[in-house]
């Protein structure tokens, strides 16, 4: 099972897009602008979205994905996330004011967008693997995801501030090979990171104590235009035993 990064940035700009990962052929983690880089033939194969939280850079392309399925006769998508997140989608993104309410079209009984609530610790079966909702600590209700494939596992923090429970959970997964963690701020802006439920390098560093040796760390959610400066600071701040790289659109992780 292959995880392909479609969008990994905190914002937009040439060459970057907001959060979306394709897992195999039928699953998305988050539905930010990165999903818009897929050809329509692959968009219509997506069956489910594992959504971390309700911020637009993670869910804003759901209405367009639903549109693609509606126009091309795709199966529609099931969105898995916490009840609070799904309630926000229903109230704001699919209220009928911004876009057609695909949670009730073509019929309320069998809509293009199906909302499936779950709690931290619950699992979702994938084609060739399983996903588990992990804890996160953001400015709105949020989760991370663990995806276990046939041989390896990868975990994604989503948007989060310091959340020791996430790192405790992933460090107990024997097949864990890769973790994608957000870092949204430079160390000088750690107070803003704390205020908005994000991480800086110095806030991430102590959380890595329990991370097993050999697990590759990827960084996402960097600020567009500041990627190089942020990565230089991250490398200088994190423990030297941790292998760290920025994850960019097109990067893949084989599970
Ligand atoms: Zn967010
Ligand atoms: Zn975000």
UniProtKB/TrEMBL annotation:
SUPFAM superfamilies tied to this protein: Metallo-hydrolase/oxidoreductase
GO biological process, one term: cAMP catabolic process
SMART domains recorded: Lactamase_B
Ranges for domain Metallo-beta-lactamase: 17-221
Transmembrane segment boundaries: none
Protein keywords: Hydrolase
GO molecular function: 3',5'-cyclic-AMP phosphodiesterase activity
Protein name: MBL fold metallo-hydrolase
């Amino acid at each position: 099972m292959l995880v392909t990064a479609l969008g990994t940035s905190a914002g937009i700009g040439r060459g970057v897009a907001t959060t979306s990962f394709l897992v195999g052929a039928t699953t998305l983690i988050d539905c930010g602008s990165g999903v818009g880089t897929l050809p329509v033939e692959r968009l219509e194969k997506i069956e489910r979205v594992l959504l971390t939280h309700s911020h637009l850079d993670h869910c804003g392309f759901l209405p367009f994905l639903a549109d693609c399925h509606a126009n091309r006769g795709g199966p529609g998508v099931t969105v898995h996330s916490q009840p609070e997140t799904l309630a926000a989608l229903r109230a704001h993104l699919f209220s009928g004011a911004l876009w057609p309410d695909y949670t009730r079209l073509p019929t309320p009984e069998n809509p293009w967008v199906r909302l499936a609530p779950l709690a931290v610790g619950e699992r979702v079966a994938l084609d060739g693997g399983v996903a588990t909702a992990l804890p996160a600590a953001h400015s709105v209700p949020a989760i991370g995801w663990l995806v276990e494939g046939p041989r390896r596992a990868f975990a994604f923090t989503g948007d989060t501030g310091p959340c020791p429970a996430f790192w405790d959970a992933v460090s107990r997964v024997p097949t864990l090979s890769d973790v994608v963690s957000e870092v949204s701020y430079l160390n000088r802006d750690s107070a803003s990171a704390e205020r908005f439920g994000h991480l800086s390098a110095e806030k991430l560093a102590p959380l890595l104590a329990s991370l097993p040796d050999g697990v590759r760390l990827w960084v996402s959610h960097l600020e567009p235009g500041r990627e190089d400066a942020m990565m230089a600071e991250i490398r200088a701040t994190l423990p030297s035993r941790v292998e760290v790289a920025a994850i960019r659109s097109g990067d893949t992780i084989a599970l």
